[in-house]
């Protein structure tokens, strides 16, 4: 019952999100929603930390008895470096978004973004067939974690990026990754069964909020996904919907990537359902 006041006792389990800036993060709303829903004696707080202070902040949280933390922009690579033990997901992503302070003093690092994306697809009933080909727009950190997770599910993955060199760098980190030239991807769309925008194109306040590429060459089975979640329906998703294609917005990835940390810190495997989605959506 979310109307009940949240009680934080002397034994409360503590976690938070390190970012700079961090005020835009939806993670505090989500984790505190789950804490109340599951009656956990705990708290989750925003932690604005400048890059220079990141290591001191992490060691300080650990010294203060925190269970761990999420890490967002610009700290995901620094979190990768500070972790003593890197999960397979973190090694593949080259980044860490979830830190867990274990009882033996070791810091464990995970990257849950890619798995969160895959879980949100599955939850929406949009499981792409194995051997399917996916095309990702972008070659940044988000692209790497989604590409790695899709490859780990058995999909063949290609990336296309405005700056081709970055796409080629990514292909070195993730063997088997194909690179498609940025000026050719719209024409080649017919080869793919999944398109994922991992850039900030289409985001409110982003570099090009009106980003609406042509899907004229898409096959009719194409699933179009966006990791942008503000607005909920990006121009790309609107274009896909008007072409009669299945679409997936970015909110599900945000919710699903959070589950592992919550489970590790607070001991409950939280559910992502319509109520969770509505609660976080209303916080925008
Ligand atoms: P993240 O780690 O969140 O993925 P990032 O590393 O800054 O963030 O990557 C942003 C992605 O959006 C990149 O693929 C970037 O393309 P470049 O590598 O060419 O910079 C892409 N991007 C940002 N603004 C863009 C724009 N106006 N047009 C095309 N791509 C853009």
Unique ligands = 2'-monophosphoadenosine-5'-diphosphate
CATH H-tier superfamily of the largest domain: NAD(P)-binding Rossmann-like Domain
Kindly state the percentage of residues in helix. 25-40%
Compute the average pLDDT. Answer: 96
CATH architectural type of the largest domain: 3-Layer(aba) Sandwich
Q: Which fold name fills CATH's third level, the topology of the largest domain?
A: Rossmann fold
Helix/sheet category: alpha/beta
Q: Which regions are unreliable across 5 or more consecutive residues at pLDDT < 50?
A: none
Tell me what you see in this structure.
- Helix 8 links the parallel strand 11 (223-226) and strand 12 (246-248).
- The strands form 2 sheets. The chain has a 6-stranded mixed sheet with strand order 2-1-3-5-6-4, sandwiched between helices. It has a 6-stranded parallel sheet with strand order 9-8-7-10-11-12, with helices on both faces.
- It is globular, with a radius of gyration of 19 Å.
- The mean pLDDT is 96.
- It has 11 helices and 12 strands.
- It is an alpha/beta fold.
- The two termini are 21 Å apart.
- Helix 5 packs across helix 6 and helix 5 (113-123) crosses helix 9.
- The chain has 2 domains: 13-111 and 258-282, Rossmann fold, CATH 3.40.50; 114-252, Rossmann fold, CATH 3.40.50.
- 2'-monophosphoadenosine-5'-diphosphate (ATR) binds at residues 138-143, 161-163, 166, 198-201, 207-208.
